[in-house]
Amino acid sequence: MKLETLRELYIDELRDLYSAETQITKALPKLAKTAANPKLRHAFEEHLQQTKNHVQRLEQIFEGLEEKPTGKTCEGMKGLLKEGSEMAAEDGDSDVIDAGLISAAQRVEHYEIAGYGCVVTYAELLGEAEAADLLSQTLEEEKQTDQKLTQVAKKINVEAKAA
């Protein structure tokens, strides 16, 4: 795809995020099932519900733009989720595996935070105020999830160290 305008870049980045979010909705149930720590399992389950809302917000934005959300695969997210899946398949101490799952999940969150930060700015510059608000909500939720994972990690990492 040839990108000539900020609007084209904005739509391309939104498609990338849509692909990322739909991939995450498929990966989170497996991570939740693998997590031994109940707080970590709950964090994954809660984020799955948020992620479904993120997909709906993106669909709403695409509808307003009169564009389709499909047509792009987020290769970055594909790779991050593959790493998370590999961690989930590891054998070993449950606290150590949970610590690894948190690490993989936080990489995902940081990737999303970067992507949403960019599209919020693009939406604002393009005068897409409603979209900017929706994207900002998602950005804040991604940041909160990252913080929640950090809090859970503080306990799990200590337990993993003792393993």
Describe the structure.
This protein has about 160 residues and is mainly α. The chain has one domain (about 5-160): Up-down Bundle (Ferritin). It has 5 helices and no strands. It has helices at about 5-35, 40-65, 75-90, 95-125, 130-160. The protein starts with 5 loop residues before the first helix and ends with a helix. The mean pLDDT is about 95.
Give the SSE string: HHHHH
3D shape: elongated
Radius of gyration from the CA trace? 17 Å
Given this structure, which CATH class is correct? Mainly Alpha
The main sheet comes to:
none
Low-confidence stretches at least 5 residues in length (pLDDT < 50)?
A: none
Q: How widely separated are the two ends?
A: 50 Å
Q: What is the CATH-assigned architecture?
A: Up-down Bundle
Contiguous helical run count? 5
Task: Give the tally of structural domains.
Answer: 1
- What is the CATH topology? Ferritin
DSSP summary, beta strand count: 0
Determine the strand fraction and express it as a percent band.
Answer: under 5%
Helix content: over 70%
List keywords for this structure.
single chain; 163 residues; mainly alpha; Ferritin; 5 helices; elongated
Brief account:
With 163 residues, the protein is mainly alpha-helical.
List the helices and strands and how they pair.
Blueprint: H1 6-34, H2 38-65, H3 75-88, H4 94-125, H5 129-162
